Amino acid sequence: MVTMAERSEPFSHDETFNAIAAQVESQQSLPNDAGSFEDERSLDPEIDLVAPSSDVGAALEAILMVAEQPVEVGLLAQILEISTETVVSLCSYLADSYEDEGRGFTIARIAGGYRYQTVEAQSPYVERFILEGQMTRLSSAALETLAIVAYKQPISRAQISAIRGVNVDGVVRTLQQRGYINEVARDSGPGSAGLYGTTPSFLERLGLDNLEELPSLGEFVPESEIFETLELALRNSSEDDSGIAE
Fold this sequence. Notes:
The chain has helices at 13-26, 35-43, 56-66, 73-80, 84-100, 123-131, 140-152, 157-164, 169-178, 200-206, 224-245, and strands at 71-72, 105-110, 113-118, 155-156, 181-186, 194-198. It is mainly alpha-helical. It folds into two domains: 13-119, Arc Repressor Mutant, subunit A (Orthogonal Bundle), CATH 1.10.10.10; 140-220, Orthogonal Bundle (Arc Repressor Mutant, subunit A). The protein starts with 12 loop residues before the first helix and ends with a helix.
């Protein structure tokens, strides 16, 4: 049998599913180090943790449907009793199937795991639903502080204040209460100031798998010609103000 890795031409969806099913069929049981599941089965013989291969896709969908956080690949592999490679292939296959069917949701790899989320094309409707009547949106100060933490972490309150030019104690507390940032370390210098970093909830909100997926700051920095134009405009404006004062 030709495996997915050996074939050079792309598989159709039916061929992909058959290949995944064949992988599942070949994986009869959990690895030996999965002692917790064996212990659970021995304590209650009525518990049957072995899912039929034809139901693995449905079982994966059910798990992701009820999960509040992205589910790690290793955990899915243990529960479904298949390899991590098969989990990744199955999630990719399901995501492609949803796209072909024009669904409003997909399976995405976020914060090191998999979860269900809406597709980008439906974001205007989802945003309207979420923001309708919402009274607790983050302020501009909170968003600025969150951006600083995201790109400069780990960072102390004093360093954040130095960048923003204002006291940030209240904003930092708000971001902590929302679960977007947390104290991740202590500064080795005098005072052992707390150092802050972003949380998995931050990645979830932005739909990112890791911090490396944050957009480059260079994309938001104006080109040198724009800086020169702004500087010239400010200089001319200052000269005009001086002439009026005289």
